[in-house]
Design a protein that fits this description.
- The complex is a heterotrimer of chains A (309), B (343) and C (305).
- Chain A has 309 residues and is mostly helical.
- Chain A has 2 domains: 1-79 and 271-309, no CATH class; 90-267, Orthogonal Bundle (MetI-like fold), CATH 1.10.3720.
- Chain A has 12 helices and no strands.
- The longest helix of chain A is centred in the C-terminal third of the chain and has 39 residues, at 214-252.
- Chain A starts with a helix and ends in a 6-residue tail after the last helix.
- Chain B has 12 helices and 12 strands.
- In chain B, the strands form 2 sheets. In chain B, strands 6-7-8-3-9-10-12-11 form an 8-stranded mixed beta sheet, with helices on both faces.
- In chain B, strand 1 (6-19) and strand 2 (22-35) form a beta hairpin.
- In chain B, helix 3 packs across helix 4 (129-142), helix 3 runs parallel beside helix 6 (161-173) and helix 6 (161-173) packs parallel to helix 7 (191-208).
- The longest helix of chain B has 18 residues, at 191-208.
- Chain B is globular and about 70 Å long.
- Chain C is mostly helical and 305 residues long.
- Chain C has 12 helices and no strands.
- In chain C, helix 4 packs parallel to helix 8.
- The two termini of chain C are 38 Å apart.
- The mean pLDDT of chain C is 81.
- The chains are: A mainly alpha (309), B alpha/beta (343), C mainly alpha (305).
- Chain A binds chain B through residues 201-203, 205-214, 216, 220-221, 224-225, 228, 298-301, 304, 306-307, and chain B through 58, 60, 85-86, 88-94, 97-98, 100, 102, 105-111, 119-120, 123-124, 155, 157-158, 168, 171-172.
- Bound molecules: adenosine-5'-triphosphate, iron/sulfur cluster and magnesium ion.
């Protein structure tokens, strides 16, 4: 397990480094220095900026400075909102995004697991069809369309929930549901398949031959083994949810990081793009890292350092 | 063998699977009994219904598609034919233990061995967890796994194949069941390990006075452990008798074929191994006559037209073959000959 | 009851032919796969839908006398009518024509990106798996790291650098999209490599390129086709997503994503405008997914019976 954790850690660091480097040089491949695009920047400030961020130096030196600042957690200053640092904007925008993201993950995963288990146990029954329909919707209708439709019907027409904005829990409900659809679909179908796979395993026969009841077999022997393979898709799933916040926040007017990110794309706010990209990637890579470690913790075959993944 | 008390009696069992392609008549009228303290072997080609029969006794076949079509199962004086799943739960694990062919997949990979043994104790007896774990450890000792203290906290993947099968035996025998059903317990193991596992089963059978039903393809295993043998073919029993009767006075052409197709310990140089040609019939549409007819050197017209009845050779020896009919031509039994020549 | 007479006991012997009769006629892999796919009604319906969609993407834009970019400010936001079958948008552009132009673009992007992903992934994975050892080690480390980079974020960055447009969307998606396929192919090749027919070819002195092309790829083609089929809807989604946040194809060109975005802006007044792009994106993605499911079942050799 130690070796496994170590290996994962190295991967994580290298991945992050590659992302930072890639992002940095990609941003600098855009012609002109970042400040020329914003005409309103006074010359004095521009000079200060160039000096402060060493933009007058060769690219590789700038890169060095950027990395150094990054290690101190300094992501630079927004080019659009000159008095605000990228750190500040992230600090302000992250909590709403985090809440929406977390709520959708919890909703999607828990509901998906339950639905998958129930569907597998009632193969071709009512809940199996419900889960199949939800899975089809989640797999084929893009999240921004689900979000728009929910907003249109539930909020605008039926007026059950606020159309957009931020503040109360009610504001978070529709965005979370819209965002959780895809993961709900994936998890419920995978869990169903995984459960059906486990049901056919020999050790379930053994458990039955011991005289255990169906409930005991399901809880003690099936679910734990069936969940294991699901954990591996959590990484990509979380990535989907995080990127999904970009559009969801735009649609529901949530002052979250995703909205700022999309905004910074419209504004050509390069430091902001750079900063948020690195921030997002770090979050995602960390999530994937934790998922890997959790998997290792749950699966004794990895925990005890035998066998690969 | 002393006075024989019947522990399990299976009468005219019929079991089918309803698949999308039609009814698979996997077991078609099977009768046998198991006496207390004895070991019964069930042999026959792959797919002849051995496992389905045993799973039907334990009600382990998934239903649907499985379906008990007829017959009676009497265990320890109780008619369990129509037991519900809940009633069966009190028998499974405590009165009948079962071990399976592949020890690599028969244990839950995410549960420690100790917990898997303790689970069966906790299910059937009102004991504390710590007590159950203590007894799990004792069971590991009994089945010959060293360092049981440490081993109970390990997971199946830390055990070798042979050790896993020992652990399976520990689970199956933890509650000293009256009957142990072992479905090809040694097939997946190395030859040396096979012998160890068989020895262990024989030891424990004596120690606990358990009856054993052992399913196997391996006539060596049969000779080693069994008191009586049932030979199955295409969902039916074709011959059953004591081990001596089956090995030295086999009466059914299929048994002859079976005996000729495996090396025997007492083989003479001139004996050659002869495989049985052809494949068993399709159980979707079993032949109306003797199921073995298409492969039987001695097949007669009647064999293709009507199924033979079971006849008694002796108190313990039954054969289901038209050759036993008085009209049938006399054929020389190759094994009687062989034995005669030996003497 | 059959009457038992002596003559019934005449010996006739075994009937080996019957006992060895081959029940099913033999079929090639593709015939067999096609037969099984045809039995799958859902997959066939999806296939038919996709073929119709492809035809409409080609002829649809010419079925009405407007160009996708023709504006008519006198006739904005009209509901569906005899002149404008799907209505018009906020600039008075015909939505029927624009929807099928969108189909063209979405399908082109989806299929091209998936195919390019497939080709690059197959080559990379094939080489990595075939040579194994140190080569494989290095190549897979690279893939592992790329795999860790959030896909959509990288695509967005690349789009920013390369500027919007059809070619750049496809390029951005392919740069990041091939790793999944590379992993899949490598896994398949590693499994197959040790099998006898490959060893035999090796012993006979076949060159690596020949072995990869003649033996390994044909034997891994099933999972590859399935994976490409699943990649298409993923690419269509990515394009729609990018267009929706304004990074995709630029006006006056239309894709289903930009159409959905345009419709969203007037959703409260003209909700039906969202219907067509939303419907076609969803049903197209659904059809590719269901077809993929069907292909997976049909091409899986384990299910072959
Ligand atoms: N769930 C099922 N559905 C349909 N048919 C089944 C099912 N289970 C078993 N069968 C059929 O029942 C027949 C008997 O199978 P069984 O497993 O009892 O054979 P066996 O004698 O134990 O063979 P082996 O030595 O290979 O274990 C086989 O022809 C098999 O195809
Ligand atoms: S009944 Fe006929 S076919 Fe069947 S085993 Fe006996 S002789 Fe052979
Ligand atoms: Mg069996």
């Amino acid at each position: 397990m130690l070796r496994y954790t170590f290996e994962r850690t190295i991967y994580m660091i290298v991945t992050l480094w590659v992302i930072i480097t890639l992002t940095f040089f990609l941003m600098h491949m855009i012609p002109g220095d970042p400040f020329t695009s914003e005409k309103r920047v006074p010359e004095q400030i521009r000079q200060n900026m160039l000096a402060k961020y060493h933009l007058d130096k060769p690219l590789i030196v700038q890169y060095g400075y950027y990395l150094r600042n990054l290690l101190h957690g300094d992501l630079g200053i927004s080019l659009k909102y000159l008095n605000r640092s990228v750190n500040d904007i992230i600090k302000a925008g992250f909590p709403p995004s985090f809440q929406i993201g977390m709520q959708s993950i919890i909703l999607g995963v828990s509901l998906g697991l339950v639905l998958g288990i129930v569907a597998a146990l009632n193969r071709n029954g009512f809940w199996d069809y419900i889960s199949m329909i939800l899975a089809i919707i989640g797999r084929s209708v893009p999240n921004f369309i689900i979000a728009t439709l929910l907003q249109f019907w539930i909020a605008s027409k039926l007026r059950w929930l606020p159309v957009s904005g931020w503040g109360t829990f009610a504001h978070t409900i529709l965005p979370s549901i819209a965002l959780s659809f895809a993961s709900l679909a994936i998890i419920s179908r995978l869990m169903r398949a995984s459960m059906l796979d486990v049901i056919g395993q020999d050790y379930i026969k053994t458990a039955k031959a011991k005289g255990l009841s169906s409930t005991e077999i399901i809880w003690r022997h099936m679910i734990r083994n069936a969940i294991l393979p699901i954990i591996t898709v959590l990484g990509p799933l979380i990535a989907g949810i995080v990127t999904g916040t970009f559009v969801i926040e735009k649609i529901f007017g949530i002052p979250g990081l995703g909205k700022y990110f999309v905004q910074s794309i419209y504004n050509n706010d390069y430091t902001m793009i750079l900063g948020t990209t690195i921030f997002y990637s770090t979050i995602l890579v960390l999530m994937v890292f934790f998922v890997d470690i959790t998997y290792g913790l749950i699966d004794p075959r990895i925990r005890l350092g035998k066998g690969g993944r | 063998m002393g006075k024989k008390e019947v522990l399990l009696e299976v009468k005219n069992l019929e079991y089918s699977f309803d698949t999308y392609a039609g009814e698979v008549k996997a077991v078609r009228g099977v009768s046998f009994e198991v006496y207390k303290g004895e070991a019964l072997a069930i042999v026959g080609e792959s797919g002849c219904g051995k496992s389905v029969t045993m799973h039907a006794v334990m009600k382990l076949n998934p239903e649907p598609p499985g379906r008990l079509k007829g017959g009676k199962i009497i265990f320890d004086g109780k008619d369990i034919t129509n037991y519900t799943d809940k009633e069966m739960q009190t028998i499974r694990g405590s009165e009948i233990g079962m071990i399976f062919q592949d020890p690599m997949t028969s244990l839950n990979p995410t549960m420690t061995i100790g917990k898997q043994i303790a689970e069966v104790i906790l299910k059937h007896q009102d004991v504390a967890k710590a007590e159950a774990m203590k007894r799990a450890k004792e069971m590991l000792d009994i089945v010959g796994i060293p360092n049981a203290d440490k081993r109970i906290h390990q997971y199946p993947h830390e055990f070798s194949g042979g050790m896993r099968q020992r652990a399976m035996i520990a689970i199956a025998l933890a509650l000293r069941p009256k009957l142990l059903i072992a479905d090809e317990p040694t097939t997946a193991l190395d030859v040396t390990i096979q012998a160890q596992i068989l020895d262990l089963m024989k030891d424990l059978q004596k120690q606990f006075n358990t009856s054993i039903i052992i399913i196997t393809h391996d006539l060596g295993v049969v000779a080693d452990i069994a008191d009586r043998v049932v030979v199955m073919y295409a969902g039916k029993i074709v011959e059953r008798g004591t081990i001596d009767e089956i090995f030295y006075h086999p009466q059914h052409p299929y048994t002859w074929g079976l005996l000729r197709s495996v090396p025997r310990l007492d083989a003479k140089k001139k004996d050659r191994l002869v495989p049985i040609i052809g494949t068993p019939p399709d159980l979707f549409a079993p032949p109306i006559g003797c199921p073995f007819a298409a492969r039987c050197d001695y097949a007669m017209k009647i064999c293709y037209e009507a199924p033979p009845e079971e006849t008694c050779e002796s108190d313990t020896h039954n054969v289901t073959c038209w050759l036993k009919h008085p009209y049938a031509p006399k054929v020389t039994n190759p094994f009687e000959m062989g034995v005669a020549a030996d003497e | 009851m059959i009457e038992l007479t002596r003559e019934k006991f005449e010996r006739v012997g075994p009937n080996i032919e019957e006992s060895q009769a081959i029940v099913r006629p033999s079929m090639t892999y593709w015939q067999d796969a096609w037969r099984r796919l045809k039995m799958n009604k859902v997959a066939m319906a999806s296939l038919v839908f996709l073929i119709l969609l492809g035809i409409m993407a080609i002829i649809g834009p010419y079925m009405l006398p407007y160009k996708y970019s023709d504006q008519n400010l006198m006739l904005t936001n009209r509901p569906p009518s005899a002149e404008h079958w799907f209505g018009t948008d906020y600039l008075g552009r015909d939505l029927f024509v624009r929807t099928w132009m969108g189909a063209r673009i979405s399908l082109t992007i989806g299929i091209t990106a998936a195919l390019l992903d497939g080709i690059i992934g197959v080559i990379y994975g094939g080489i990595s798996g075939y040579f194994g050892g140190q080569v494989d080690n290095v190549m897979m480390r690279i893939v592992d790291i790329l795999y860790g980079i959030p896909y959509l974020i990288l695509v967005i960055l690349l789009m920013l650098v390369m500027g919007p447009g059809l070619v750049t969307i496809i390029t951005a998606m392919v740069i990041t999209g091939w790793v999944g396929m590379a992993r899949l192919v490598r896994g398949q090749v590693l499994q197959l490599k040790e099998q006898e027919f490959v060893l035999a070819a090796k012993t006979l002195g076949a060159s690596p390129g020949r072995i990869i092309m003649k033996h390994l790829i044909p034997n891994t083609i099933g999972p590859i086709i399935v994976s490409i089929t699943f990649d298409v809807p993923a690419a269509i989604f990515t394009e729609a997503f990018l267009s929706y946040i304004g990074l995709g194809v630029q006006p006056p060109l239309a894709s289903w994503g930009t159409l959905a975005n345009d419709a969203t802006n007037v959703l409260l007044l003209y909700p039906y405008q969202l219907f067509f792009p939303a419907f076609f994106i969803s049903v197209t993605m659904l059809s590719f997914n269901l077809l993929g499911d069907g292909l997976r079942d049909a091409l899986d050799p384990r299910l072959r019976k």
